Structures
1.
Amino acid sequence: MDIEALMKRFVLPKRTYADKEKTMFYVYVHNLVMNELIRRKITTHRAVTFVLIFTTHGNKTRAYQETHPMATKRTANVNANKYYKRFDVYVAHSITMHLVYKDRLTLALDIKYINNYGIDRYVNSLILELWKGKL
């Protein structure tokens, strides 16, 4: 049996509208929050890009090489672990992971909260939620 015929038997599941909607909500909230954190100078564009690439590929060295184009593979391997421990990368990573694990309804309510009270207040409540354990 040829591999293509075998792969045709295992059809990838279609994404439901709810999955697509959750992705749209996540991207919207994530962009708003990261732009606010960058404006407050808590994190940087490079740290956010590093985190997004790292969470996509799961490879710190590759993420470091993509965000730092002048680094060789050897220096990227050494520096990626140091870079991953920086505070701005830690902030971007913790908020990204926190938003990823929120469900669709919570993200929709977060968007409603942002529309009512503004992004400043939402980011403050998100920081309290993450670092002080208040829900």
2.
Amino acid sequence: MAKIYHHERQLERDLQHLKQRKVLYRLLSTVGLCVTILIVWQYQLLVLILVAVAIVGLYIISQCSLSKQLGKVTAGLEGEDRALEVLRNLPATYSIFPDIQIVVDGRTSQLDTIVVGPTGIFVVEVKNHAGVITGHTNEQQLLQIKHDGYKKTIYNPVKQVATHTYRLHRYLYQHGVDFWIQGTVYFANGAAKIDVANHSSTPIFSVNENGSKRLLYYIEERQSRTLAKSEQRTVEKLIKHIVKKQASN
């Protein structure tokens, strides 16, 4: 099995932060409401009754907003976890680095997963969207149609991973390493149907279409640029440096 370099991911930090905010808002709202009710009970002022109603309203709005954000972050983590479960089935000659943040030329990229092995370097962009995803890889946005008929646009993950691979290449190049980096997109949600016209060099895989096995096969069998063991170690060392830097922040 492949080696996964686990560390605290950005989405895990975001989830913890949102949970703390939810508890804090609940505490502040409860204290504020109790104080207001106590004053209203003693003085029976209409303005304070309105204040109490406003506090309840703000509390409900804040909790709804935080619950929505929590749901989004949780879904993102679930998708990344599913992708890692798939990628760990690569041979032991491969290394997997989840959630790598790269800053190059003053710009930041958050890479879901980097895979380094004898067949090259891969960046896997993971999406956990449900419903029908339709569009064309040349477009900036794709259309998501959920099962209840709700429609929304999402940023094209093919273009997203193209930016990530460019920045990873720039980072490695600035450290004396110049290798081709292959981007891929993996839809990890079994409730997704992918109907995207793909004329790019970036393959799209979906768990719903035997994409897990196809993704592994693609990585293992790609022979356009192989890495020697020494080259692989050099790349892994540079990425480990990023992981160490992230952990210290």
